[in-house]
Specification:
- Helices cover 45% and strands 6% of the residues.
C-alpha cells in the first residue's frame, strides 16, 4: 500500500551480452572438485542466540530476502543486553498525566514549533495532499524526535534481532527484522542509516521497518524516502500514516470543556455523542467559543485524564487516529495540545492537579483490591488501562463516590483498607523522563 517505492532491477550477467565460444567435447575429464562449503556463521558467545539466528536465517531466506543480504547483515551479530533490559523494564513509578503533559507541552517546545511552522514552506502542500493539518504533523514530529534532533542511536537490525531472540515479542520482531533486511536489500537505506530507538523505531517519525515499507513516502520529490535526513519525507510519511488510519479532514481532534456542578463523572470514557447532546447535559467549551460545523456533526467522548480535579476534554475521532500512531492517551493529548499551541492557542483553562507518583506496588495492590471486592480490573500488572478504570468507576459508583475512574494515592488507600491489603513502604520516586520511549 506504499505510495511510492523505487524499483531496483538486477542486471543480467555480462556473459549473456558477449557469449563465449561453444565448449569442446572432452574425451577424458577429471571429476569436478566439490564446491567449497559455506563458512559457518561465527559464534556470538551465546549458544541460544546462535540457535535462534540460524533458524531465523532460514526463515528470512524463505521470505525472499536475498541470501547475500542475510549473510552480510547478520554476520557477527550479537544480542544487545541493553535492549533486553529496556524491554523487560516496567517503571517503578507512574508519572501523573499532568506532570507528563506539563513537561512535554513546554514553552520552549511551543516556540520551536511555531518557528518551524513559519519556516517550512512546503508544509501546507503536505497538509493539502493528505488532509492532515500541518500543526498536528508538527506535534507528532515534536513528540517522536524533538523535531528530528533525537532519533535514537541503536542499530535497528541488532535491536530487532535481540527482541526476537529474547522471545517476548518474537513473531512481531522477526517480521520487523525481515522488513529491515528488505529495506537494506532495496538500497533505500544503508545499515548506518538504520538507527533508532531500542524498540526498532527509526528516523524522525520513528517508523518501524514494516511501516516504512508500507507507508513512507517521498515528500521532497528527490525520488527517495528518507525519513532520517529529510523533514519533508518524514512529515509526509507521518501524514500518510494518519490519513490511512482514518484522519477526518476538516474536523478537530479534541476540545477542553467545562462540566456543570453535579455532573455524572461516570459518563467519562463512555458514550460518544455530538456536542449538542453533551450541551444538553451542561457541558460547554472551556474557551467560550462555539463549535465548527464539522465538529458539531461529529461524535465525541468525554475524558477526564486526571480525574474530576483536572481538565475535561471531548475527544473527537481524530484523537483516536493519533492514538493509532502511538496508543497512549497522554501521547495523543500532548501531540494535539502542542498543535493547538502552534496555531496560537493558549494553555488549558483548568490547571493540571499536582499528584503523587504511584509506585508499581501500589498500582498492583489497587488492582488486587478491586478484584477482591468483586470489580474485575483484568490482570494485576500495574498497568492502569481501560479495564482498571472501568472497574474503578464501578467501585466508585457503588460507594457513591465521584465515578471519574482516576486512581490517586488517596483512592488506593481506600481500596487497600476496604480489601484488607496492608500498605507496603514505598521507595522514594525516581526522577522521570520528560517523555516515554516510543516503539512503533
Amino acid at each position: 500500500m506504499m505510495m511510492h517505492r523505487r524499483a531496483f532491477m538486477l542486471m543480467a550477467a555480462a556473459g549473456l551480452a558477449d557469449p563465449t565460444p561453444p565448449l569442446k567435447i572432452q574425451t577424458a575429464q577429471a571429476p569436478a572438485a566439490p564446491a567449497p562449503a559455506a563458512a559457518a556463521p561465527a559464534s556470538s558467545g551465546d549458544a541460544a542466540f546462535d540457535a535462534w539466528l540460524s533458524a531465523f536465517r532460514a526463515r528470512a531466506a524463505g521470505a525472499g530476502v536475498p541470501q547475500a543480504v542475510i549473510d552480510r547483515e547478520l554476520a557477527g551479530l550479537t544480542p544487545n543486553p541493553k535492549v533486553v533490559a529496556l524491554d523487560g523494564r516496567q517503571p517503578e513509578f507512574s508519572k501523573p498525566v499532568g506532570d507528563y503533559l506539563r513537561g512535554v507541552v513546554s514553552d520552549d517546545r511551543v516556540a520551536i514549533g511555531r518557528s518551524k511552522r513559519e519556516s517550512l514552506t512546503w508544509l501546507p502542500d503536505v497538509s493539502r495532499r493528505f488532509g492532515v493539518p500541518g500543526d498536528i504533523l508538527l506535534g507528532v514530529w515534536a513528540m517522536e524526535s524533538a523535531f528530528g534532533a533525537v532519533q535514537g542511536d541503536f542499530d535497528t537490525v541488532r535491536s530487532l534481532a535481540t527482541l526476537a531472540y529474547d522471545g517476548r515479542r518474537r513473531d512481531w520482531a522477526e517480521l520487523q527484522l525481515i522488513a529491515a533486511l528488505r529495506i537494506l536489500a532495496s538500497g533505500e537505506a544503508t545499515r548506518a542509516q538504520l538507527k533508532g530507538s531500542w524498540a526498532g523505531a527509526m528516523g524522525q517519525t520513528q517508523f518501524v521497518p514494516e511501516t516504512f515499507l508500507s507507508t513512507a513516502v517521498d515528500g521532497d520529490g528527490d525520488g527517495r524516502r528518507d525519513i532520517w535526513g529529510s523533514p519533508a519525507d518524514a512529515l509526509a510519511s507521518a501524514a500518510n500514516l494518519l490519513a490511512k488510519a482514518g484522519w477526518r479532514r476538516g474536523e478537530g481532534w479534541a476540545r477542553e470543556v467545562v462540566l456543570p456542578a453535579g455532573f455524572d463523572y461516570g459518563l467519562s470514557e463512555g458514550p460518544r455523542q455530538t456536542p449538542a447532546a453533551w450541551a444538553a447535559l451542561g457541558v460547554r467549551p472551556a474557551d467560550g467559543y462555539g463549535w465548527s460545523e464539522a465538529d458539531s456533526l461529529a461524535e465525541a467522548q468525554l475524558m477526564l485524564p486526571a480525574g474530576a480535579a483536572g481538565p475535561a476534554f471531548l475527544l473527537f475521532p481524530n484523537h483516536f487516529v493519533i492514538r493509532k500512531y502511538n496508543n497512549s492517551l497522554a501521547y495523543a493529548l500532548a501531540a494535539g495540545m502542542l498543535a493547538d499551541r502552534f496555531t496560537g492557542g493558549g494553555p488549558l483553562v483548568a490547571p493540571w492537579p499536582y499528584e503523587t507518583p504511584l509506585s508499581l506496588a501500589d498500582r498492583v495492590a489497587a488492582q488486587q483490591a478491586l478484584a477482591r471486592l468483586g470489580f474485575d480490573p483484568g490482570s494485576a500488572d500495574g498497568v492502569v488501562g481501560v479495564n482498571t478504570r472501568a472497574a474503578l468507576r464501578a467501585w466508585q459508583k457503588a460507594r457513591r463516590l465521584p465515578a471519574d475512574g482516576y486512581l490517586s494515592a488517596s483512592v488506593i488507600q481506600q481500596l487497600r483498607a476496604e480489601a484488607g491489603i496492608a500498605a507496603a513502604p514505598s521507595p522514594v520516586p525516581a526522577p522521570q523522563p520528560a517523555s516515554p520511549p516510543t516503539g512503533r
